[in-house]
Amino acid sequence: MPKISSDTLWDIAAAEVRSRESRTEEEDAEEDAHFPTQRTVFFMGSKAGGKTTILLRFLDRDEAAKPTLALEYTFGRRARGHNTPKDIAHLWELGGGISLSDLVQIPITADNVSSLSVVLVLDLSKPNALWETMERLLDSARSQVEKVCASLQKTGDSRSGKQRVLHKDYPDRELISPFPVPLLIVGSKFDIFQDFDSEKRKVICKTLRFIAHFYGASLIFSSSKSEAVMSKSRSFVNQLAFGTERPKSFSTDPSKPLAIPAGFDSLNQLGPPVTSDVDIGTLHAKNPFDLWKKVFERVFPPENTKERKELKDPAKDPQYSEPLIDSIRAQKDQELEQYKREQAKSWKSLALDP
Questions:
Q1: For residue 222, which of 84, 124, 338 has the smallest C-alpha distance?
Q2: Angle subtended at Cα 198 by Cα 269 and Cα 53, rounded to the nearest 5 degrees
Q3: Residue 131's closest CA among 296, 21, 321?
Q4: Per-residue model confidence (pLDDT) at position 256
Q5: How far apart are CA 196 and CA 341, in angstroms?
Q6: Other beta carbons less than 10 A from residue 188's beta carbon
Q7: Between the CA of residue 92 and those of 55, 74, 104, what are the distances in Å?
Q8: What is the rounded CA–CA span in Å between residue 81 and residue 68?
Q9: Of 119, 191, 278, 345, which residue is least crowded by CB atoms under 10 Å?
Q10: Total structural domains in the chain?
C-alpha cells in the first residue's frame, strides 16, 4: 500500500523555498537552462535606412523588404540545444525615422523593460541627418525606459525596475552616460559610404565610435550587398535577442566596416574629434558630447528642419502611397470641404429673430 503524505500544501511550499535557497549559483544556472527565455529587441533608426533588411537577415527570411508601416511586430525562436525549449525574441520595428518617435511607448513597457535591448540603425549614406536621428530617437527611448523603471520602483512591483549598470572596469565609466538598456548602433549602407572622401569617412567613423562609447553601446557597420558583413551584424543582434556569446569581430579601420563590441573602445584610443579646419576653442561646447556634435555638424550641417516636413500621419507619406485608395480619399476630402463651405454659407444667411 503506498505511503500517504500528511504534509499540507504550506509544508510542501516551505520545503521548496528552503531547497531553492540552499542551491548554488551553478545549480540555479543548470535549472534555468531547461526553461525558455523571452527577450525584446526594439529596432529604430533612419527612415528607409535598412532596418527591415537587417531584421529579415537575422530571421533568415529570404524575402524582399517592404516599407515599415509605423510600428511592426514579429518574433524569432532559437533552440539552445537538442530537446530543449526554444528561446523567444520579440522584435519590434519603428518606421518613419524621427517622425513617429512618440510610438516608443508601445514596445517599451513594464512587462519587458528588464529584458529589453535597442538596435539603432543609422544610414551612413546620409550623414547630414545622422546626428539628429540618433539624438532624437535615443532621447525618446531613454525617456520611456526611465519612465517605466521609475514607475516600477515607485509601486514596488516585483518586476525589475533597475537600469543597466556598467561593471567597475568599464573604460571611462565615470565620464560616459550609458544607455539604460543594452544598445547596438548599426551604420547601414556601407557599400555607398565606402565611396565617400577619406576625410569625411574618418569624421563619420570617429564620431560614431564616440557616440557608441558614450552610450556604452556596440557599433557595427553593415551592407546588404555583402553577405560577410551582414553575417557579422547578425551575430551582434543574436547576442541581444538570444544571449549568445559576445561577437569576436573587432575593427576600427575607417576604410573597412567598423565592428566594436561595447567596452572595447576608450576615449584614449579615440583621441580628439577630427578638426582639420575647425578651431575647437571657438566652439564654446558645454561638455564632450556637445563638442563632438558641434564639430560633426560643421562638416555635415544638419538638414533644414523648416524645409523638411515631418509627416505625423503615415497616410500622407509618399512611401505608403496606394493610387486607387488615395484618389478616393482625395475625392472624399474635396466633398468634405465643399460640405463645410455650404454649411458656412447657410449659417451666415440664416436670419435669427431678435
A1: 124
A2: 85
A3: 296
A4: 93
A5: 54
A6: 26
A7: 10, 7, 10
A8: 33
A9: 345
A10: 1
CATH classification at residue 196: 3.40.50.300
Distance, C-alpha 78 to centroid of its chain:
21
Model-level pTM?
A: 0.78
Cell numbers for 121, please give them: 540603425
Within 8 A by CB and 6+ apart from 222, the residues are 50, 54, 186, 187, 188, 189, 190, 229, 230, 232, 233, 257
Residue 183 lies in a domain: yes
Distances (CA, A) of 88 to 71, 78, 141, 160: 19, 7, 22, 19
Owning domain of residue 232: 38-299
Give tens-digit pLDDT for 258-270.
999 999 999 999 9
With both helix axes pointing from N to C terminus, report the angle between 130-155 and 288-299 in degrees, rounded to the nearest 10: 150
Please state, in angstroms and rounded to a whole number, the distance separating the CA atoms of residues 320 and 48. Answer: 12
Q: Specify the length of the chain in residues.
A: 354
Give the strands of the sheet with 71-79, arranged side by side. Answer: 71-79, 86-94, 38-45, 116-123, 183-188, 218-221, 259-260
Give the Cα separation of 233 and 244 in Å (integer).
13
Per residue in 84-142, pLDDT (tens digit) is 789 999 999 999 999 999 999 999 999 999 999 999 999 999 999 999 999 999 999 99
Look at residue 213 and tell me if it is in a domain: yes
Grid cell 563619420 in the structure block, residue: 204
SS3 110: coil
- H/E element, 87: strand 86-94
- Residue 342 is assigned to a structural domain of this protein: no
Residue 337 falls within a domain, yes or no?
no
Q: Pick the closest to residue 207 from 286, 122, 147 (CA basis).
A: 122
- 10 Å CB burial of residue 19 (0-12, 13-18, 19+) is exposed
Helices (H) and strands (E) in the chain, counts: 10, 7
